[in-house]
Amino acid sequence: MKRCLIVDDSKVVRTVARKIVEGLNFAIDEAVNGQEAIEACRISMPDVILLDWNMPVMSGIDFLRALRAMADGERPVVVFCTTENDMAHIQEALGAGANEYIMKPFDSEIVETKFAQTGLL
Amino acid sequence: MNPQDFEKLAALLHGRSGLVLGSDKAYLAESRLGPVARQWQYVDVHALIRALARREGSGADARLLDDVVEAMTTNESFFFRDNKPFDQFREFVLPALMSARSTSRSIRIWSAACSSGQEPYSLAMILKEMGARLEGWNIEILGTDISRAILKRARDGIYSQLEVQRGLPIQLLAKYFDQRGDQWQVKEEIRHMVQFREHNLLGEPPAAGRFDVVFCRNVLIYFDQATKAQVLAKVAKAMAGDGYLTLGGAETVLGVSDHFRTIPEQRGLYGRADAPTTVAASGT
Ligand SMILES: C[S@@+](CC[C@H](N)C(=O)[O-])C[C@H]1O[C@@H](n2cnc3c(N)ncnc32)[C@H](O)[C@@H]1O
Question: How far does the signal peptide extend, from start to end residue (chain A) (predicted)?
Fold first, then answer.
């Protein structure tokens, strides 16, 4: 079973995302900020990371830069999932190595298409 | 809606567009035609249908019938809908045509029943991404639909956040769209690659000459067998002998039309039945 790490400081969003991604047959881990996510990745690298942008302690974009510099950190597919819905943020995310980008609000169909298009399904 | 009105409406709709109005759709028809009746200043949908029936064939109310058809169509579409046909276009159809057309260096593509334009724009982006490999080629993309209103949307190329998230890879959004408030517009460099034109699939071909690629997706499902066969026969005629037809995921030519044959290992892709069975690679 493939593994997905969900990184978001909102419990509501994590719960919704978990339901959707579990429905796609992934095992789920959760982290509430970038720092926690780095620790989770050190222990074991997931196949995909669903990543919020604005979080206390460490933001999604800082986490992504740190991740891509880690050993084996190139491997996970990273899908941003954020309310930042402007071109500047999208470009910045792509520049830092994001594979996909979901603008909130999102639904299961969007997550499923993005996962399919990045070769996860 | 009373049964007589419903029957009249179903007959008019079928005659004009081929669309089949299932008997469970009376409520849907009533709610979709309400605004049309108001716009044309009829007291209600009943009056609208009576007026249509009365003037049938006179030509006077062609616009009214167009509006009725438009209101009854399903326009849902996505960028790169179902993915697979677009991968197939990129990896199989284009290479085959680039070798078959290496002399004329010209490829003509028809997106039939293109709705709000996501399908032809997806094809245009694929072609743009080919970059230098298509330099010097003359590639034409024609998008057609029966609905004038939906074609206006297609030409504008403006989509909601939800629409650009359903199937459009983010790299392509970043490259080929401009943000307009909370909406996204296809850039001019892509828009100018596609021409849009009003066209009824029951009528004559939308342009002279033959198309090398036809996408006709998610419209046959709304037709009955006889209409499907009629439309497929017209599509076959408008296609080059060695051209390719792509249908929707729930559509097939099998058992409907003998103008086409399947292509080995390419699901959902069809060639003309009278095409040469092998693509000649040598120039003999
Ligand atoms: C569901 S959309 C399909 C859009 C796109 N091809 C896709 O697969 O996403 C169906 C379209 O068929 C159009 N249509 C219905 N009857 C038609 C006809 N007789 N001739 C041309 N277009 C027709 C409708 O206006 C509508 O835009």
Answer: none
pLDDT digits 0-9 by tens, B179-205: 999 999 999 999 999 999 999 999 999
Kindly state whether residues B22 and B118 are assigned to the same domain: no
Domain membership flag for residue A120: no
Q: Which amino acid is at B282?
A: S
Strand (E) or helix (H) holding B179 = strand B177-180
Question: The domain that contains B31 carries what CATH number?
Answer: 1.10.155
A28 lies in which domain range?
3-115
Total of domains in chain A? 1
Each residue of B122-135: pLDDT tens digit? 999 999 999 999 99
Residue A121 included in any domain: no
pTM: 0.94
Checking phi first, is residue B86 left (phi over 0); if not, alpha (psi -120 to 50) or beta?
A: alpha
Please report the ipTM that was assigned to this predicted complex: 0.94
Report which ligand 1 atom has the smallest distance to the Cα of B111.
6
Q: How many domains does chain B have?
A: 2
Mutate to test the pocket of ligand 1, among B146, B163, B231, B235 (most ligand atoms within 8 A of CB): B146
Given the structure tokens 């995302």, which residue do they identify? Answer: A17
Domain hosting residue B13, numbered range: 3-72
Cα angle value B28/B183/B194 (rounded, 5°): 85
pLDDT tens digits along B6-26? 999 999 999 999 999 998 999
Distance from CA of A91 to the nearest CA of B (A): 7
